[in-house]
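Thread: adenosine-5-diphosphoribose complex, take 2
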Amino acid sequence: MTGRRVAIIGAGAVGASAAYALALSGTCHEIILYDIVPDIAIGKAIDIAQATNYSPRGTIVKAAIKPEEIKNCDVVVITAGVPRRKEMTRADLLNINAGIVKEVSENIKKYSPDATILCVSNPLDVMTYVVQKITGWDRHRIVGMSGALDGSRMAYQIYQKTGFGAAQTRAIVIGEHGEHMIPYPEITNVGGIPLTQLLSKEDIEEIVEKTKNGGAEIVKHLKTSAFYAPGRAISAMIESILSDEDKVISSCAILDGEYGYKDVAIGVPCVLGSTGIKKIIELDLDEKTKKKFDEAVKAIKENIAILEDGGFFDK
Ligand code: APR
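Output below.
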């Protein structure tokens, strides 16, 4: 079996959890872990490879020591970077992670020229934009992981209120993967039933707030950011891409006129299949949500401007 080769750049908590989720599902033929610290990639690759003994289908899991060993991958995930610590906002991470993502993107362009890139490093929307600028690739081959995770966090909060329908909840979150996240209860449903018909306005408002604080809540308890749910969200997106499932998954996409914006990356519902983002679904946003979306675009563009003003894209 050829194809279905996935590389994960950054074998830290999120990268390894994504590899583990993929290895358990048997989605890939081969998973390659790379990390700037080779022992991390080697150790985790061995551990996850040994876990595949009980997987439904065989998956080869190995480590790459040099970037040039990551050749001809179908999907490359970027989780390299510095995780957000309690005292940091996502924007604090901007400069360090942009440099890392740039270096990684240049290597992907060189060694896996036909890949779809799944960006996970934070601040997510800006990093997804950076990947597209650095590679210069068709925007549909660059996708960011945001709504897949935020939606699963919203679904969790909904279950805390309803006590039923956990696996049947389709929660939609768009906007920035950060402070300007937009959980969208009006188009969220549990088993096809609109959330607005199941819960009170107050309960829904609480769900929205808790969803927005989903990452911070985990940091508060663990003193480090989340990894299991991000890992599973990454694997769900890769499953849709590699199996050409055309699932609708909220993802960070580079807009070129959709929602009235260009030259920005932001979370919107996307159809994910073999060529990456096959379609961006343009929701008819109500006035209140449109205002939030505009604010999210503004915040992301401000961060992009910080990089531009520092000459990041000229170097
Ligand atoms: N190339 C490859 N790997 C790198 C590089 C680089 N240039 N720079 C750092 N790394 C590696 C680190 O050695 C580390 O193992 O990236 C890994 C990051 O892992 P963690 O520190 O465990 O962070 P994690 O929680 O996995 O988060 C990774 O995903 O969700 C986002 O905000 C999060 O940006 C962060 C990223």
